[in-house]
Known about the structure:
By secondary structure, the chain is an alpha/beta fold. The chain has three domains: 3-121 and 251-326, FAD/NAD(P)-binding domain, CATH 3.50.50; 124-248, FAD/NAD(P)-binding domain (3-Layer(bba) Sandwich); 342-425, FAD/NAD-linked reductase, C-terminal dimerisation domain (Enolase-like, domain 1). 27% of the residues lie in helices and 28% in strands. The protein has helices spanning 3-6, 22-33, 59-62, 75-80, 141-151, 164-175, 196-209, 255-259, 304-320, 387-398, 405-409, 415-425; strands spanning 14-18, 39-44, 83-87, 91-95, 100-103, 108-110, 113-116, 120-122, 135-137, 156-160, 179-184, 212-215, 219-224, 228-233, 238-240, 243-246, 250-252, 268-269, 281-283, 288-292, 297-299, 335-340, 343-349, 356-359, 368-374, 377-384. The strands form seven sheets. The chain has a five-stranded parallel sheet with strand order 3-2-1-7-19. A five-stranded parallel sheet has the order 9-16-10-11-12, covered by helices on one side. A five-stranded antiparallel sheet has the order 22-23-26-25-24. The longest helix is centred in the C-terminal third of the chain and has 17 residues, at 304-320. It is globular. The termini are far apart.
Amino acid sequence: MNAANSGAEPGEGSVVIAGGGQAGFQVAASLRQAGYPGRVTLVSEEARLPYQRPPLSKTYIKTDAAFESLVLKPDGFFEKNRIDLRLGERVEAIDRGDRSVTLSRGGRLAYDRLVLAVGASNRVLPIPGHDLEGVYQLRSAEDAEHLRAGLAGAQRVVIAGGGFIGLEVAAALRALEKTVTVVEAADRLMGRTVSREVSAFFLDEHRAMGSEIRLGTALSAILGDGRVGAVALSDGSELAADLVLIAAGVVPNDRLARTAGLAAENGVLVDGTMRTSDPAIFAIGDCAAFHSPFAEKIVRLESVQNAVDQAKLVAETIVAGEAAAGVAPYRAVPWFWSDQGPFKLQIVGLTAGADHVEIAPLGEAGKLVAYCFSGDRLLGIETVNRPGEHMLGRRILAEDLVLARGEVARHGFDLKSHVAALKRGA
């Protein structure tokens, strides 16, 4: 590659990162931390500094918190670390033969290595009225600020979707004393993510918080004359509404990769070091589909942990260069969390395929530990307001410690003592 085109000194190389979210930011930061000498360019479609997204559905929409409270690093960090931050631009196309990308404003960047950290987009419900005033989605800080402004004049809120985002927002709005109805098409809450037992726990708690939860029901139309006034449901009923939030999940942003001829299936397909079907191009975070040893299949994960860990691995692989064959493949233990009112849900492992769930008899209201198994194999642990068991669960999966179904079901079973005994016997 011509060094003049790449902006790097001869032999130093050039990395272009498409996407300025948590994953893209982490690649840039980790490259510099590991001593990468070449040019690092971070292209972010948003015109804002990279920031945290988890608070958007919780504290950010119910307080007057400033955007600066979300920022991952101040502007000076990028200058100090020689990260060329291109805000308000996106990578529009990839020329794999020339190893260059075209930007949305018409410029071009050459790369030795390209990292796709382009995330995911909200799923759009193709129903009448989805474009009325008073209908919102939540993915970016700008979305959250628009929603926060819209809530000022709204009392009756309908949330379409009973996943993490929908339920986090529901809890936040109940704290603001809004009238909240959650409409979920499936027969339970968070159906793709947690066990039925944990779904049932949160159904009871959200109803106790004052939210109306309608399961097995979908939005069929949003009604209003210019502005939302009601919603029509699939069961034929209608609900009055001043504001509607669509929280119906996301789809991976894999169009850029597909157009460039990269393999993709519900995300950009990558190997154990996050390389795509083109070895010069990596994909990480919400847009990447990879084989997980914890699910024994191809998965695509939407979590800060996954984004950060994959970003660090890619930075390590790039810095290793020709020695990259010695870099261990991705095997980070997946974990997730969701703050819903006073309840902190924490999940370690991928528990969706569980065929047996053992609930620990804690005897404490508002707390729960669910051990999720497939046959005799522990898939993961779901906890509510029990951080100790969550951390032990991470250790069990990371170290391949044995936790048998029969042991968990035993009267008086204590996870901490069990792990300690396993370590003593190791």
